[in-house]
Amino acid sequence: QVQLVESGGGLVQAGGSLRLSCAASGSIFRVNVMGWYRQAPGKQRELVAHIISGGTTNYGDSVKGRFTISRDNAKNTVYLQMNSLKPEDTAVYYCNLKFPLVEVWGQGTLVTVSS
Predict the structure, then answer these.
(1) CB–CB of 94/85 below 8 Å?
(2) Average pLDDT in the chain
(3) Is 17:85 a contact under the CB 8 Å cutoff?
(4) Which of 62, 53, 51, 58 is nearest to 87 (CA)?
(5) Over the stretch 27-74, which tens digit does the pLDDT of each residue have?
(6) What does each C-alpha distance from 8 to 30, 79, 100, 104 come to in angstroms?
């Protein structure tokens, strides 16, 4: 069974930075996509960024130039470096892992950005 464990959320002032981590465990196909989604109160879950095992990345428009996703394949871990945070980045951030026939979500970690 595949599990995801997230860490790194918290409270930060606008303009600050946070780094989220998500470690995957279990039987994981080597070709996979790991990513981060977020959901703010009253809004739909949206893509923040994802990264394919080969390194190709994709970002949501609202975070381009401010957030950077990276991964360590040896550790099955994905990171999200969030810089220049804005109050509108406040949300629960969920880690996601996909490979053929499997999609797994983390439990979510709250990021709160104060103005």
Answers:
(1) no
(2) 96
(3) yes
(4) 62
(5) 988 889 999 999 999 999 999 999 999 999 999 999 999 999 999 999
(6) 25, 10, 28, 19
Cβ-proximal residues to 41 (8 Å cutoff; 6+ apart), any chain: none
What is the tens place of the pLDDT at every residue in 7-31? 999 999 999 999 999 999 999 888 8
User: Which DSSP state fits 89?
Assistant: G
pLDDT number for residue 29: 87
Give the whole-angstrom CA distance, residue 68 versus residue 34: 13
d(Cα 94, Cα 81) in Å, to the nearest integer? 14
